[in-house]
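Name: TadE-like protein
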Amino acid sequence: MAVRRPGSPDDGERGSAVVDFVLVSVLVVVLLLAVLQVAVYVHVRNVVVAGAQEGARFAANADVPVSEATGRTLAVVARATTEQTADGLQCTAAEEVDATGLTLVTVRCAGAVPTLLAGLGDVLPLEVTGRAVEEAP
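Structure predicted for TadE-like protein:
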């Protein structure tokens, strides 16, 4: 083992690898959490869009009232994600007439996507719409 002198040029760099590791590790963890949060947001958004479309298709049937669309939408979202995510959504259903004269069932859902860090709360807004053409009775 070599003996080091107190005035050697290596003394200024001693311990810098530990500091570099900590700084880079923090950056990598933050980037990983950001990528995971984007993945969660996209997944929940896709599930809510599919739920709104399913609710609109369900209510567009000839023998189903439009008011049933929101319940079906929330059931699909709760089954695919969690009850808490479904409870955080406010969905409305209505009949609309488009420019061509078709009657559409429209389901609109608004809410927030849960964050990975629980202390931040629900800071990612979500607003989706699903439509289906109403069947004639």
